[in-house]
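Protein modeling request. Please complete all fields; requests missing the sequence field cannot be processed.
Requester role: graduate student
Desired output: 3D structure, token encoding
Chains: 1
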Amino acid sequence: MQRTTGNRVTMQQVAAEAGVSVSTVSKVINGRYGVASETFEHVTEVINRLGYEASLVARSLRNSRTNVIGVLVADFEPFSTEVLKGAADAIRGTGYELVAYSAGGRVDEHVGWERRYLSRVMGTLVDGAVLVTPTVTDVQYDGPVVAVDPHTGPSRLPTVAADNLQGARLGVEHLLELGHTRIGMVTGRPDLISAQLRERGYREALAMAGVPVDEALLERGAYETDLGKAAARALLMLPEPPTAIFAANDLTALATLEAAAELGLDVPGDLSVVGFDNIPESALAHPPITTVQQPIRRMGHDAIAMLVALIAGDELAETHPILDTTLVVRRSTAPPRTPRDTAPGGTR
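Delivered output (348 residues):
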């Protein structure tokens, strides 16, 4: 029997190829009694050869379970991709399959996307879900849900997050130790807790060093490349520009490098740059970016482990773990040049 390209193999096709009834194929698929061992092996061979697989919806209707876990993201950007890698590591050997779902990061999905996504997949496609950087976590669904890097603070949902506050302190303290005192910041989205904590860490590090916060040195980047680049450019075009910039995430740190290059500035000679996340792209930049590493893959791994335990009905030892952040020093930071005797874009 030849399978038609692009068509799903049906139970009826398996039965015809094996020379048995559809009910016999159904018994084999569901492991029911009443099928001779030789027939069972023969039908199983045909199933494997034809590539038959019941749809997730059909499996759910039949067993009330799909043995599938969903990872729901607003978009497939570097952070969520790293979370997925950790989730894939954790799913091995659990008996579950993993499906990733995104609506492509549409603008209208920025707030409340998790409720819409969950309503589409929970119960019929997945047995539980991991929400990556949800904007809201007051979701009510039949299956268990775990949130990674939640942006709404304390939650009734189990969550996994990194220490954003301490991480930001580490990044700014590094710049202070190098001798920078005029340190700008490209901030994240003001409505997100992670961004608020990173800005707070920036302010606290300056205060602890006795350096006054100059509000003119903060520009909103919203975690997005275009806005981050515009924010960095605005800082670097100030009459007295910063000698260093702390970016709220690596995407805006990369955008800061672009803005500096367009203005003829050398990094780290004229400007030091620190990011946050340690996505793979930060190590591949020119120069490689000093950044605050949050254990993104581990966050995805631990979220899956928590979710599998919840599906099994187990009680979690910890429902809101906060994972340590560390500073990764690369070549985008150096002591400030003195004196800064020209405006951005001039000869140093």
